[in-house]
Amino acid sequence: MTRIRNVGGKITETTGGNETLHAGKDIIYNASKAINIKGNNGVVFGQPGQLTDLRITKLEGPYDETGKLVSEIRVGQSYSYLATPTRTPTASEVLLLKWAAKIDDGEITEIRAGGVHNQLSNGKITVGIRVNSEFKNVKIYAYFKAASESVSVSATGKSRYPMLVLQGSRRKGKNRENTGTALDMLAGDYPENAAGFEKLRKQLYDETYNLEAQDGWFDTPRADNAKADSDNRMKQVKEYCNKSDDELFRIFKSEIQGIYSSGKIETVAGEMVDRMKSNSGGEYTNKDLTDAVIAHGNSKTFIAAVKKVVDEYVKEKKGEISDLEITDDGKGKLYDKLVRDGVDNPKFSDWFSGLGITINDVWAYQIYITDYKVNGSNYEMKLEYIYYDHFGLDYPDIQKYDKSIFYSWFVLQHFKGYKPFITKLDIVGPLNGTF
C-alpha cells in the first residue's frame, strides 16, 4: 500500500506520548533542503523489527446489542466481535489489528473497522462491525499479518427489508390510547339482561349529553334530550335482541348491499357480513376492496404525502436510511413531518360506493421500505403501505346512526357475540429520486 502526502507549506505533528513509525519495506524522506531530526536525549536508530509478535488465537461473535451471541445478523446493523491475542497488547498494538470479511463466495476483503475503532477490554480486542450490503453468508476475520480461516467466525444474513419506517399513533385492534382492546373489536360484552341494557343505556345517555355541550342554563333540556335519545335507542336495541340471529344477518346483509354499497364493493360487503357470521375474527383482505382504496383520492393524497417526507429524508441524509427503522412501538422519525404537513389517516366517507361502510376511517397504518438501491446519487425504493380498519361497531355508532342495519350489526356483535375482524389493505409502489 502506498501513501503519498504533498503539501505546499509546513507539516507539524505533535504528540503527548510516543510516536511509532513502522514500515514493511523502506521509509523514504525527501526534502529540497535539510531534514532535521532532534531529540532531547539524542536520536537512536535501531535494527528493524517485526511490527508485532502478536497473533490472534480466537475470534468470538457476532454479539448483538444486548451481548447475546447470535448466528444470524441483520444487514446494516452493528454487531460486536472479540479477538483474543497471544498476550495483552500495548495501546499502539491494539491499533494494528485488522479486520476482514468474506461475503458469500467473494474474496476476503479488509474492512475499515480497525484502527481507532479497536478497543481493549479484559485482554481482548473488540470492535463493532456492520455489513451494509445484502448477503446470505458472511465470514469475519481478525489478524495482524494475514487473515486465516482458523481465526474467523461465520453468520447468516437477515435482510434489513422489509424495514418499518412509519406508523400512525394507533395500533390495530387497540383503543385510541393503545392501552386495551378497541370498543369496536369487542364481542359479547353486553349480557342480554337488565344489567346489560342498563350499561348500554347509561353509555348512550352520556354520549348524547356530552355531545350537546351547552351552557349551564340549558342543562335541563340537555339532560332531557339525552334521556329521550337513549331511551329511544334502547327501545330499538331490545326489539332487535328479540330477533333471531338469521333475521339480524338478513337485515344486515340486505341493507349493506342494497343501500350502502354498489358495484364490486357490494359483493365485498356481502362477503364481509358472511365472514362475521362465520365468527372467525382475525384479518380479512380483498383485492377488489384494495383496488378501490388505491383509486380513491384520499388514499392517493396520503401516499403522495408519505413519499414526500421519505424523499426529503433521503436527500437530507445523502441516501443513508438506516436510522429510519422503527425497532420499538414508536411512530418513527417521519411521523412529525406528516403532522407538520397536516396529513392524517386516510378516510373514506362516501357511502354510495361502499367504502364508507366497509372501511370508513383507516384506524391504523404502517409504512415499510421493502427494497432500496443506490447508484451514485440516484436511489430506487419500494414502499409498502398497510392500512388496518375494524369491521365492527361501538355504542357511539348507534347513537350517531339510528338505522336498522346498525342496530342489527350492534346486537349481533355485542349481545349475540359474533366477532368483528380487522380489514387489512396492502398497497405497494415505487419511489425514485436523487440526493
Describe the overall structure.
This protein is α+β, with helices and mostly antiparallel strands. The chain folds into two domains: 56-147 and 154-160, Sandwich (Immunoglobulin-like); 165-434, no CATH class. Helix content is 30%, strand content 23%. It contains eleven helices and 14 strands. It has helices spanning 91-94, 194-211, 219-241, 245-258, 263-278, 287-295, 297-316, 335-340, 355-358, 395-400, 404-415, and strands at residues 56-63, 72-74, 78-85, 98-103, 109-111, 119-121, 124-130, 137-143, 152-158, 163-167, 283-284, 364-375, 378-391, 421-434. The strands form three sheets. The protein has a five-stranded mixed beta sheet, with no helix packed on it. β8 and β9 form a beta hairpin. Pfam families: DUF3289.
Number of E-type strands: 14
| Order of neighbouring strands in the sheet with most strands | 2-9-8-4-5
Averaged pLDDT:
90
Strand content: 15-25%
Radius of gyration: 34 Å
Provide the succession of SSEs: EEEHEEEEEEEHHHHEHHHHEEHHE
The number of domains is 2
Unreliable stretches: none
Q: In DSSP terms, counting alpha (H) and pi (I) runs of 4 or more, how many helices?
A: 11
Classify the secondary structure makeup into a structural class. alpha+beta
> Largest sheet, described in full?
5 strands, mixed
Between the first and last Cα atoms, what is the distance in angstroms? 33 Å
